[in-house]
Amino acid sequence: MHDFLVHPVNPDLEVRVTRAMPPLSPALEARIDPIWTAAAARVEAAGAGKLFNGQIFSIDTFAPGRITGHMTEYRRHIAQTEENALFGDLGIRSLAACGVLRRADGIVLGRRAAGAIYQPGMWQLCPAGSVDAGALRADGSMDYQAQLLTELQEELGLDPGSVGTVTPLCLVEHPGSHVTDLGMAVTTTLSANAILRAHRARGNAEYNPLRIVPVPELPAFISWAGASLVAPAPLFLACAGLLPIQSDKPAS
What is this structure's pTM? Predict the structure, then answer.
């Protein structure tokens, strides 16, 4: 937990592409190729679908009100995730949109599929996913809030109109992989049963099972999940005012 870097953000945070994707040397490309191929084969063999080499946003600079960066290949991101030492050559800080979805009787959490490429079998707040090229506007800004709503529909089967305003909470950068999660608070008036029905009927296989944990029971759930809960989850819950903020939490 203490190795995770927590960065404050403003509610009106701007995320923008400010440079082109950097080229890679032939030697580096040759190093990435077998890592990507092996990862794709592993995911497909586990029945978790096929990896697609699209483009995702990578952070170059961040301040509370503004993040700048560039689009990068998903295969580069996967290679660095698989071999963290590649950060020195690739410098990727992939931005992920992560929701703290709250309804009157609880918070939505899900367990990632065992065949997932990243953090397989772990519990996390949901929905969550990389901010990809679909969120890129014509002016170079990234609609990260729309990305979260896309994940909401794809992963949980919920219509974007069923939730309220999406509000940024904080950034949490993972050690090693440098995946950087942008936690965002979002509320819904849907019942727990309605959420679970939508997930069963229209959601993808990202989470199994899905749970709605009452706010008073969050500490007990966190204790029960232990190391199988992704470390940013308690940090996002604290930023959302749902857990006490730890005084020794790293920040910058």
Answer: 0.93
